[in-house]
Amino acid sequence: ETTITVNDGPRTVSTLRYPASRNPAAGLPVAGMRAATKHTITVTIRDPQSRKQTNAPTPLEYTTPALPQEE
């Protein structure tokens, strides 16, 4: 099982969970991030049989682009 936590500061924390059958190497979608905002993303993988949990060594930071200007 893979859990992705997306935090955009004091306002929003989103937790996305993917089953063990979903291969993270094939990509995992992350949607719903706010425009022009820095997000901190943490990833945790848990083995369903041993229940061993592994956290990514460091959080990822991603700043989404601004929305296009209206004409």
Structure description:
This protein is mainly beta and 71 residues long. It is 0% helix and 39% strand. The protein has no helices and five strands. The protein has strands at residues 2-7, 13-18, 38-46, 53-55, 60-63. Strands 1, 2, 3, 4 and 5 form a five-stranded antiparallel β-sheet that branches. The protein is elongated and about 55 Å long. The N and C termini lie far apart (44 Å). The model has no long low-confidence stretch (mean pLDDT 92).
Based on the model shown, name its key terms:
mainly beta; 71 residues; five-stranded antiparallel β-sheet; 0% helix
Order of helices and strands: EEEEE
Largest sheet: 5 strands, antiparallel
Supply the helix-strand structural class: mainly beta
Question: How many alpha or pi helices?
Answer: 0
Q: How would you name the oligomeric state of the polypeptide chains in this document?
A: single chain
Strand content: 35-45%
What's the total number of strands? 5
User: How would the global form be characterised?
Assistant: elongated
- Terminal residue distance: 44 Å
- Over the alpha carbons, how many angstroms does the gyration radius reach? 14 Å
In short:
This protein has no helices and 5 strands.
Give the helices and strands, then pairings.
Elements: E1 2-7, E2 13-18, E3 38-46, E4 53-55, E5 60-63
Antiparallel strand pairs: 1-2, 1-3, 3-4, 3-5
